[in-house]
Amino acid sequence: MRVGLVVNPDAGLGGRLAFKGSDGRAAEARAAGAEDRAGPRMMEALTLAQSLLASPLNRTGVSLDVVGWSGRMGNTWMPTGWPFESLGDTPPSTSAETTMALVRALVEAKVDVILYAGGDGTTRDIVQALEACDGEARKLPLIGVPGGVKMHSGCFATTPEAAADVLLAFALGDLRCAVTEVMDLDEEVYLQGEWRVRMYGEAMTPASPRYMQGAKEQVERESEEETLEGMAEHLGLMMEDPDLLMVWGSGGTLRVIGEHLGLDLTLLGIDVVHGGTVHCDLDEGRLLDLIRAHEGPRLLLLSPMGGQGFLIGRGNLQLSPDVLRAIGIEHLLAVATPSKLLGLEAVRIDTGEAALDEDFRNRRFVKVLQGFRTTRVIRVHGT
Fold first, then answer.
1. What is the chain's Cα-based Rg?
2. Residue 348 near residue 308, CB atoms below 8 Å
3. What is the largest CA-CA distance in the chain?
4. Do 161 and 74 lie in a common domain?
5. pTM for the whole thing?
6. What's the distance, Cα to Cα, between the start and end of the chain in Å?
7. What is the DSSP string of 150-190?
8. Whether residues 145 and 258 fall in one domain
9. Structural domain boundaries, residue 229
10. What is the distance between the alpha carbons of residues 224 and 372, in angstroms, rounded to a whole number?
């Protein structure tokens, strides 16, 4: 099977710096010390795929011929010992048009699937290039390795490891393709202070509820206003401890709860509330400074992403492994309304570090606040 490789080298650069995306800000992010995210995540996926191909799980002995450009958009991230067919070289600077040109080259090379690393913007560029093609090329399956800041689309595997599993299963013929939605944040509406995820198109992807994340859903119920007020009252009682440092995650649920408490929180950022002071939209470095300087109790509030169940790893890359360890994973409290919990059997964790992901899985469960003095536990996916 011929696998087309696409890596957006700038994707995810701004995550730990509290950027809401990396489009047009790659140079700024690198100047501020940002490190590659999408490329190393692709290498992680390909390294595991290489191991799977050599394992008994490859029961029919399939082989994967990887095709793409040499350089940062391609073979820079290939593990050693895996042959690579180069169709050209990555240009010195890259853009959306560069990604689309690479996709067109992969279509001409007759690849069977595109394995790509990036975020929602990368997905949109790939789909736009495919939509301009003729015939069956428009239905070329996509497998996304999550490497951006935002990943709302249903083309992404839950983790790089999951992408490797999906790639092998697809090559073996164990997975059929299905249509999924290509989603992204509506940037114009966001500038007006509203978080709205918009559908930009459709794409084909191997159907695997276990390993593919699905598209984000907007889950709201007007009738839950009293529930949100009750959750705010619950957290307000906790905030009566003047020494408690509370780290507030992103999302509409926590934003509304904060409004009930008189807090002006960042919709897409990470905030810290301590001693009546709100520290807004913090990057990784500032979070670490505040948390490490605090010797008292701390609490991390996160709301799972509707439809996907991610607590960590989607839109909150400021919560790096170092930040999570500084807070202490035992100090995590999930916050979700009953409607958001409907059909959610487990929450997903993708910290970007395999050992820390395993620490969360070993805890097995996360406590969820779902009303005034009403909590439940929910399983961590993979346990």
1. 21
2. yes
3. 64
4. yes
5. 0.68
6. 32
7. ---STTBBSSHHHHHHHHHHHHTT---EEEEEEEEE-HHHH
8. no
9. 222-380
10. 12
